[in-house]
Specification:
Length: about 220
């Protein structure tokens, strides 16, 4: 079995964080006297970092986005894992992949400090050799900088590297970095027109790809 560098997105790929993200947005809106937004609307705003999430949730209000981000951040810190859960199979699956010798990395547009707190909370932080997130000094996805930096530090070539995520930003980052990708079809991101090398309907399917030598042949693009 060939060892691979597996770079995972977080929200919508490893964790279902929809309720806590929606809570943070609506409490921020409440701070300004605004009514709550439906959770489905907020979910559609996720994927491009916290500033974009806040800006999209305040369209038409005329409020200063940067000030609103400073309001939303501590609110979210207070509700990071109230209702957030790992997707089924993530804990066991990551441990199997790690035990098989694969190098695991997280690359998310969520702030890096919040990301690390969540990974520690669920007891999976030690499984990842690197954790990238917003505010870590690298450009957010779809810029390929996080992917490229992970390859440079771990020594893996593009042919042995995969980006795994549920959003078009993950797939575009993979494409721009010249690596292969798996689309996590069970997540809440938006694929848009981006293509992937593989698609998975559950985390167990992702694990199956990388515990089978046949999974590394790439296959048809989905």
């Amino acid at each position: 079995m060939k060892r691979q560098l597996l770079i995972f997105d977080l929200d919508g790929t490893l964790i279902d964080s929809r309720k806590d993200l929606a809570t943070s947005v609506n409490l921020m809106r409440s701070h300004y006297g605004l009514p709550p937004l439906p959770i489905d609307s907020i979910i559609g705003f996720i994927g491009d970092g916290v500033r974009s999430l806040v800006a999209r949730s305040l369209v038409g209000t005329g409020l200063d986005v940067d000030e609103a981000v400073s309001v939303q951040r501590p609110i979210y810190r207070a509700h990071l894992h109230d209702e957030t859960t790992l997707y089924d199979g993530v804990d066991e699956g990551l441990r199997k992949l790690h035990a098989a010798g694969h190098t695991l990395v997280v690359a998310t547009n969520k702030p890096a400090d919040a990301t690390k707190i969540i990974l520690v909370h669920f007891g999976i932080r030690p499984l990842f050799s690197r954790v990238y997130g917003g505010g870590s000094g690298l450009a957010l996805k779809p810029d390929p900088e996080m992917v490229s930096d992970a390859m440079n530090i771990t020594g893996f070539a593009a042919v042995d590297t995969w980006m795994i995520g549920d959003n078009h930003t993950d797939l575009e980052a993979a494409h721009r970095a010249g690596v292969r990708s798996v689309f996590a079809g069970y997540g809440f991101g938006q694929r848009n027109v981006q293509r992937s090398d593989r698609e998975a309907r559950s985390f167990d399917e992702i694990v199956g790809i990388f515990l089978s030598s046949g999974g590394f042949k790439g296959g048809c693009r989905a």
